[in-house]
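Let us work through a complete example step by step.
Step 1: write down the sequence.
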Amino acid sequence: MNQYQDEPQPKRSRRRIWIGAVVALALLLGAGGGFAAWKLDWFSGNGEAVSFGKTTPPPATQKAEPSAPPTPAQPSGDPDVLMPTGPKSDFKQTTKLDDGTIIAKTRLAGAKSGFEGDVWVWAPKEYDDPKYAKSGFPVLIALPGGNGFPANYWSDRSLGLQKAISEGVKAGTSLPFIVIMPVLNPDNKFYYDGSDIPGQAKMGTWIAEDVPDFTKANFRTYKSRDGWAFMGSSSGAFVGMKTVLQHPDKFKAVIASGGELVPDSPLWKGHQAEMDANNPEKLAKKLIDAKGPEVYINFQIGTKESGKGGMTKFQQQFGQGPVKITIRDIQNGEHNGWHYVRGMKEGSLEWISRVLKGPKPDGV
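Step 2: predict the structure and record it as tokens.
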């Protein structure tokens, strides 16, 4: 057992307890020759300042003086491209991948939610490639299961999410996503369903507004929803799906792995109307009645875990009109991050890459 796999509990998959990182660390250092991690330089530079998009050149039509600071690139001909709006955040490296890319962390004070929490980020190698300096990049907001506080386990390289994306880019099966990994909950006391529960921290606003605003401030993105999606596991899968259905004008797709389908935080007591406003079943029906816009939901479920019946029923009831739903079985898959990443490599990354728009090199 490890922090990425739930302990079995009969009632709530999202109420399973996720334990510490001891086993994960042992696996990390034990695989491939004990302390090979040190030889691979995984931890070199941790805690140092990180800058993303540092190779951005001046516009092709303008030459910068040798003594002058670099001139920021202007957007490409695509009016959907949004250059970083600022202000820039201070990032510190938390880990390094084998290809030299960096996972970094910063502290975000949400201007709209009032909540302050940690956010981890990763940009693919293509983001620093000068030929993409004027292009936007698609964003994948990755949400963890369990408590989702004080860390987001997708920022741990041992799960292989970022590596799967990089390998998919090389194979032509994945877009080069920017991955944003915020904390999911404000504490370890309760589950907040990624929602603005009355009297509680506004975690719905944090996820749906503050985190995207932060991403736009620091990265080249897209103005339209065509460049924005979620992925998540367990409770994070619920929040990602709920947010896409709730804000189809902002987000287009979600990979939802092993998640539940209705809100069930104990903090909803006495707030039925607000809970209904965060219920995917009611949100899907509302979207169907409104005839759009289209959203895309890809459920992932391991064949060794429970929950497929609920996903199938949800698909039968609400997979119509603008709500496009697919279900991917992960053979011999269990309720853990490693198996969900395997499912993404086996097809879900390619699926979501067909739904979203990717970067275009300069001149294309």
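Step 3: interpret the result. Confidence is low (pLDDT under 50) at residues 6-40, 56-68.
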